[in-house]
Specification:
Blueprint lengths: L1 E8 L6 H15 L9 E7 L5 H16 L5 E8 L1
Antiparallel strand pairs: 1-2, 1-3
Length: 81
């Protein structure tokens, strides 16, 4: 099974990379197109689990213990067979 984990800063946490990217997009002509930019990361991993619920639970444990800084980041997990 494949786990796809998207990690990003929580609302209210300053995203300096997102702000810089937004500013640059404005400067190169996308001012009226882009309202906001948030930068995150995506982790894709193959798991040995055969049950979707078990795979999601294990991926959540990995996020809580290592992959995400849960003080300032949220994560979302999707599982593909």
């Amino acid at each position: 099974m494949k786990a796809i984990i998207n990690i990003g800063l929580k609302k209210g946490v300053l995203d300096s990379q997102g702000k810089a990217t937004h500013h640059t997009l404005d400067a190169i002509g996308f001012k009226d197109v882009v309202q906001d930019v948030r930068i995150g990361k995506q982790i894709i991993m193959e798991l040995n689990a055969t049950d979707e619920l078990v795979a999601k639970k294990e991926a959540a444990k990995m996020c809580e213990q290592l992959l995400a800084n849960t003080v300032i980041e949220d994560y979302d997990i999707s599982i593909e067979a």
